[in-house]
Amino acid sequence: MDNETSEKIIHDGFVRFGKMVTKGSILIEAVIKAVYESTFTCDVDISSPNPDGSSTNTTVFNVPLKILTGSQASFIEIPTVGTDCLLCYRDNNIQRPQISQVNQCDKILIKIGDNVLQVDTTGFIFNSGGLGGMVKVNPVLNALNNIQNTLNTFMNTTFNTHTHISAAPGSPTAVPVPLNTASLTVTALSDIENTKIKQ
């Protein structure tokens, strides 16, 4: 074995060793294979090119979506199966993979204290949505105003005055009696709108 061959073997060995050591500190492109929302983990497929032009697929199982397995972070994306992602390794340890970024997600969960907001394709769901949808302010305002305007019309015109007929001798045969002419106050938008929460 000549010196040139020995140097190449040593060089190739150092390159392989360097790749093995630095693997823990680089980002690797991968694809989400499966998602386990109950444990906040996923499986990812990594495709590595071979010298002959082919590629080798490796699956990494139970990769945490955020910091801790089985723990919901304050902000966490639930990725779409089949989407591209970036895989990293915590503490430069190839035994501690973690998702760094995902290209697409099915939902986003935000948790602060006991409050949870879920954002998905159906919309925004606060605390599991048990109270139903938020009020649509303008239709409610229009409905209330229609009722109040109708009542005002009846009170001020239709039933504003009426006639009592007296059968007593010497009494007037017709006496106009006015009703209370107080009007209902028309509802203002500020009366029923919570500006801290908007749809």
Give an overview of the whole structure.
This protein is α+β, with helices and mostly antiparallel strands. The protein has 2 domains: 3-129; 137-192, no CATH class. Helices cover 23% and strands 36% of the residues. It is built from 3 helices and 11 strands. The chain has helices spanning 3-22, 137-158, 189-192; strands at residues 28-36, 41-49, 55-64, 75-79, 84-89, 97-102, 105-112, 115-120, 123-126, 161-164, 175-178.
Regions with little confidence, pLDDT below 50 for 5+ residues: none
User: What's the total number of strands?
Assistant: 11
Strand order of the largest sheet: 3-2-1-5-6
State the order of secondary-structure elements, H for helix, E for strand: HEEEEEEEEEHEEH
Number of helices: 3
Give the mean pLDDT.
Answer: 80
* Helix fraction by DSSP (H/I, runs of at least 4): 10-25%
Count of the domains:
2
The dominant shape is rod-shaped
